[in-house]
Each structure stands twice: as structure tokens, then as C-alpha cells.
Amino acid sequence: DIQMTQSPSSLSASVGDRVTITCRASQGISNSLAWYQQKPGKAPKLLLYAASRLESGVPSRFSGSGSGTDYTLTISSLQPEDFATYYCQQYYSTPQTFGQGTKVEIK
Amino acid sequence: QVQLVESGGGVVQPGGSLRLSCAASGFTFSSYGMHWVRQAPGKGLEWVAFIRYDGSNKYYADSVKGRFTISRDNSKNTLYLQMNSLRAEDTAVYYCAKDPYDILTGYFDYWGQGTLVTVSS
After folding, report:
1. pLDDT at residue A105 is higher than 90
2. What is the pLDDT of residue A106?
């Protein structure tokens, strides 16, 4: 199975900050990477797929980049509604696997 | 709009069985692959199973293989997960999730609200 490692596990940030979350795969995944946002008690929501493609309806302050084994989710200007846990997920091979999550908290 | 509504969760004893359902609406259910994904309390996400749009191919996580069975009834727009020989480590919120395509792409563009399964004596 491909292991996905996110960093950091948690971070504190203020409204308006630029936030970056990284995700590293244990082997190359050819941009087969998705990012999800999950708020407490809610289902995850798809933000990006194919590493950098924004899902319809997702604000443009979210962006993704990377290649090979290393990927990044960036929130350009953190908004109050962005405080949540973020997960990366590889779908290069089955079983699809997730990172352990990054909790973004209010500073 | 796409809606996925899970049901069938509850408390079950170790070794017991449970069947989860996921009622789909707002899209052509018979044209898309579907998944089950679970999340243990306070933990991360774990993919469980996938079924192709026509039910012809199914894939499972090793942790549930041989115990869980995914199926679908396209005439009823409903996805199922039959869970047998349940263990304490199967305790989780179970989400059904839609694949963007008919075959296995592997990511999830819509999710249900989840149903909680608790395995405990």
C-alpha cells in the first residue's frame, strides 16, 4: 500500500494568513492526488483532484501543486470558514489511502 | 443536487452482522462507481470498498476482505454494504461516496452524511 504522510499534523493561523500543507507519498503517484476539507461532525468535501484541479464551487484561494511524491495544498488567505481538518488522498493505486490529516486552528 | 443518504448503522455485538444502505438521488446512479469510506471516532479516513457502475467489479480493503460485501441495486438507486463477523475495530462512521466516473477513478466527489456503526458487547 502507498503510505501518505501529511505535515504538519496541526497548525495555528490567523484570518488572512497564507497556509501551506504538505503531503508526501511513499512512492510516485503521478499527480493522482485529491485534497478534502472536513469540519467537525460533517462529511469530507472534495477541494482539489489531479493534484491541482479545483473542484467546481471551491473558492480560488485554494490551490494545489506538486509532482512525483511531494504535493502541497495552499490557502492563499485564510478565511473563518476554512478552519477545519484537511486530508490528502492518493488514488494512483488501490487501496486508495489518505494522509493522517492536518487540523487548521484559529490562532 | 446530488444527495447520498446512509442508513442502517447501530450497535452490534462482536461477531454480529449489519447491512448499511445508501439512497442516492440527484444524479444518474447507474452511471457511476460508488465507494464506502469509514472513519473511526477521532481518527482519519479509511477507504473500505468500491463497486463499478454496473456491479461487475468490486474491490475491498484488506481489513474487510472476506467479511464485507458491497452491492448495488440500480433500479432502486441504492448502494449497500453487508458487514459480517464484525469486530471492535470496525467501529466507525461509514460514508458512502460517489466516484466521478463509471469505473474506478478512486477519489470521491460527493459524500453522504455518514452512519455510525458501533461494535461492542
Report:
1. yes
2. 87
Which candidate from A92, A94, A101 shows the least CB-CB separation from B44?
Answer: A101
The CA distances from residue A62 to A37, A78, B33, in Å, are: 11, 9, 27
Taking the Cβ of residue A76 and every Cβ of chain B, the question of whether any pair is shorter than 8 Å is answered with no
Residue the block writes with cell 492526488: A33
Buried b (16+ CB within 10 A) or exposed e, B40-75: eeeebbbbbbbbbbeeeeebbbeebeeebbbebeee
CB contact under 8 A, B45 and A98: yes
Contact residues, chain B, for A97 at CB < 8 Å: 47
Q: Is B106 a residue whose pLDDT tops 90? A: no
| DSSP 3-state of A54 | strand
CA distance B7 to chain A (A): 15
Q: What angle do CA B37, B40, B41 make, to 5 degrees?
A: 135
Check: CB of residue B23 under 8 Å from CB of residue B98.
Answer: no
Residues contacting residue B72 through CB under 8 Å, at least 6 positions apart: B29, B34, B51, B55, B78, B79, B80
